[in-house]
Amino acid sequence: MSDSSERLEVWCAGEEWCPITTTATLVGKKWHPVIVHRLLDGGPSGFNELKDDVDGISSKVLSDSLEDLQEKGLVAREVISEQPFRVHYSLTDRGASLEPVIAAMAEWGAEHLRAPEQ
């Protein structure tokens, strides 16, 4: 992403903490990193496939999350067929570039979290 027109416009540009804030804004919502992770692992997926893969998410929240990720240029939506209506969601190059961030989150979580006691 060397072309500055492809970079995200942010209010805090120039501040040393701005890259952290911007990244947190992109992946800081509860389901966003999970959706990105599922698309990294499974490749392009239909809505119902993603809903099954993201255990516990409602259709409304998944729809809103996918729309937000599309607006931020992380996810692409492609209409596969009109009858029956089917779409596939996939990561854009920008979305796929989050792979090391998502991997680091998974690694940190595996190292520092534990299941609740019964």
UniProtKB/TrEMBL annotation:
PROSITE patterns: HTH_HXLR (PS51118). Residues 18-117 form the HTH hxlR-type domain. It comes from the Archaea. InterPro entries: HTH_HxlR, WH-like_DNA-bd_sf, WH_DNA-bd_sf. The keyword Transcription regulation applies. Keywords: DNA-binding, Transcription, Transcription regulation. GO terms for molecular function: DNA binding. It holds the Pfam family HxlR. Signal peptide: none annotated. PANTHER family: TRANSCRIPTIONAL REGULATOR, MARR FAMILY, TRANSCRIPTIONAL REGULATORY PROTEIN. This is Helix-turn-helix transcriptional regulator. It comes from Haloarcula limicola.
